[in-house]
Amino acid sequence: VLENQDMQDSIKPQKVEFRSLNFNSTLHWQPGRAREARDTVYFVQYKVYGQSTWQNKDDCWGIQNHVCDLTTETSDIQEPYYGRVKAVSAGIYSDWSLSCRFTPWRETMIGPPTVTVIHTNKSIILKLQAPRSPYKRKRGSKIPMTNYYDLLYQVFIINNLLDEQHRVPVYEGKDKVIKIENLRPGVSYCVVAKTYVPMLDRSSAYSSRQCTVL
Q1: Confidence class of residue 166 from pLDDT cuts 50, 70 and 90?
Q2: Which family is annotated (predicted)?
Q3: pLDDT tens digits, residue range 68-84?
Q4: How many secondary structure helices (H) and strands (E) does the chain include?
Q5: Rounded Cα distance, 111 and 109, in Å
Q6: Which of helix, strand or coil describes residue 3?
């Protein structure tokens, strides 16, 4: 019995946590401290906080991965959820390992906007597009994150003659089309942008850089 108990403890999944970007929410975990046997498989359940019954996630029932997509199951973004995982190896079942409480609206990371650059001789015009959620409108297009949050765009310009890391903030606001003027012809400029959520005081990563020579 003790040996079984040891085995149960040693295969129990560790560090069960939700990770979420633009409401694409996945449950991640690490294998137990036993060197993972080849035949170890995992079973995932989830529930809304306050419910008594756990739901099986059928696509993640007896899987070898250490990740399970729960985007659809956590689509009520104001609700708090839990996930849990157990391992089975050589006929031995571990106990369940529980995640922390996860509320998508509070905890999802917002991605950067998509930036398109159009240049004229002394100015750059930027078109910004908010990141999209995985959830769809009736017509099938994905709902932008601006439907869920009051988002601001932060735009930075990098003059390539100067230090690479020197990002000068040139705009913060909601406009989707921005004109940056009084730039020097013949100089290469790069633009990066972030999405900022004032209510949560949270910024996205920088967008990929878009560069142009005037």
Answers
A1: confident
A2: Belongs to the type II cytokine receptor family.
A3: 999 999 999 999 999 99
A4: 2, 18
A5: 6
A6: helix
